[in-house]
Amino acid sequence: MSIDEYGGGQRPQADVLVVTTNDVPGYEVKQVIGEVFGLTVRSRHLGSQIGAGLKSMVGGELKGLTKTLVETRNQAMERLVEQAKARGANAVLMFRFDVTEAADVGTEVCAYGTAAVIAPRA
């Protein structure tokens, strides 16, 4: 399986740069806007949960669950970028994900970071 098959690579966001670092080489932070986040909660239907349970007994990747988590992660990141753009940012610094189980009914994924305005160094 390739990384792209599961959406492992970051989608290009020409108007908002998202990085896990505190700064961007060659750029300076002109303004820190503040925390932004994108949140989503997803559940799987009963049939897929039963299938995943059976697969987990014999071992191997749970491809259906992997696909759902990637879709959930991408949706959380898209919401983060939308919030950053709405607040006037062109970058999100210190980007992270937080994943938790939500009351045994689904998986909560929160993408978060610091919205900022950055510009190339003169």
Automatic annotation (TrEMBL):
Signal peptide: none annotated. Gene3D superfamilies: Hypothetical protein apc22750. Chain B. It holds the Pfam family YbjQ_1. InterPro entries: UPF0145_dom_sf, UPF0145_YbjQ-like. It comes from the Bacteria. Belongs to the UPF0145 family. This is UPF0145 protein R2D22_16680. It comes from Streptomyces solicathayae.
